[in-house]
């Protein structure tokens, strides 16, 4: 079977990222509506978010377990179909039991899609030997912008109507994703150096602690703490995503020109200032400005984390390793590395809500302090001599 052209594969992967962002942000900007529908306070909402995060972690572990025997394209399609089923179930749930069932399916699907979209992204990045993940994550952000815009435009739409969103993952589930170039791995796998993975993983935790806090609690913060008009609460998310998306779409060239260390350190300083604006905001307008600046500051942490993890997983001897084993190892490591995503989400969504149960100003102070740890951690993202884009001409490309 002939290989699908790279341009079509790239468009398919970008579409999967976009749909994941569209669904997630649409639902998080509707959290105040879900909260009102089921009469949930901050603590109860935090527990629901905790359950989703834990289930997403289970979905990511499942993707890791399957990675050695099935390619990520198959698992990505399965995850998208789970999300497509889950969204209308919990959006139109007539009872708490149905709501919980839908959220279980959604959590598992999100975890699988999170892991496999990044597997697909690093596979194509290695195939073309240049940075692609910043723009792929930019597609996720573009989907989020569309989701937030949809909430702004249709703020009064009833929750059951949100179930139509399930058509989006269904529409992209069978696009031509990157198929595995080699069969299942046989024999022992090369040992993965976990110490550098822990360092870049800490960066991913920091990102998601900030990002999930903004996405999960930003609209509620504007609504309950700063008394913004209810129809405008999505402004906590919309400009954040817009700024983040613009930086990510330019991120491939930005990182190639300046290097990841300088970009990450500058972003950490910007993010700290932005969160200070949010925490001490005298009005909802100032908080919106803070969320906007925050999106630009943290934009490329996640894609650079996954790129660095894939490089470390491939190993310095990538040209000599068995292609199938190396490919399976990279997929498995990316799925396991994705667990850092959920550790950050626990801090961002759950801890922010619990610490901020009395005042979300205090809750947002948590990521404000944590983001400064990106300053020393940035060094771990420096590429090795044979990293992406500097590979010797005679070395064969990474698989897929």
Walk me through what this model shows.
- This protein has 400 residues and is mainly α.
- It has one domain (6-174, 192-381): MFS general substrate transporter like domains (Growth Hormone, Chain: A, Up-down Bundle), CATH 1.20.1250.20.
- The chain is built from 18 helices and no strands.
- The protein has helices spanning 6-29, 31-38, 42-67, 72-91, 96-128, 133-153, 159-162, 167-172, 194-225, 238-249, 251-258, 260-279, 284-298, 301-314, 323-337, 339-355, 360-370, 374-377.
- α1 packs parallel to α6 and α6 (133-153) packs antiparallel against α10.
- The longest helix has 33 residues, at 96-128.
- 58% of the residues are buried.
- Mean pLDDT is 84; it is low at 386-400.
Task: Give a quick summary of the entry.
Helix content is 72%, strand content 0%. With 400 residues, the protein is mostly helical.
Task: Please render the helix and strand layout as text.
Layout: H1 6-29, H2 31-38, H3 42-67, H4 72-91, H5 96-128, H6 133-153, H7 159-162, H8 167-172, H9 194-225, H10 238-249, H11 251-258, H12 260-279, H13 284-298, H14 301-314, H15 323-337, H16 339-355, H17 360-370, H18 374-377
Q: Provide a count of the helices.
A: 18
Major beta-sheet overview: none
The N- to C-terminal Cα distance equals: 14 Å
Domain module tally: 1
DSSP strand count: 0
Helix fraction, binned, reads over 70%
Quote the average pLDDT.
Answer: 84
How does CATH name the architecture?
Up-down Bundle
CATH topology heading:
Growth Hormone, Chain: A
Structural class: mainly alpha
Strand content: under 5%
Task: Name the CATH homologous superfamily.
Answer: MFS general substrate transporter like domains
Q: What characteristic shape results from the CA principal axes?
A: globular
The CATH class, by name, is Mainly Alpha
List SSEs in N-to-C order: HHHHHHHHHHHHHHHHHH
Low-confidence stretches: 386-400
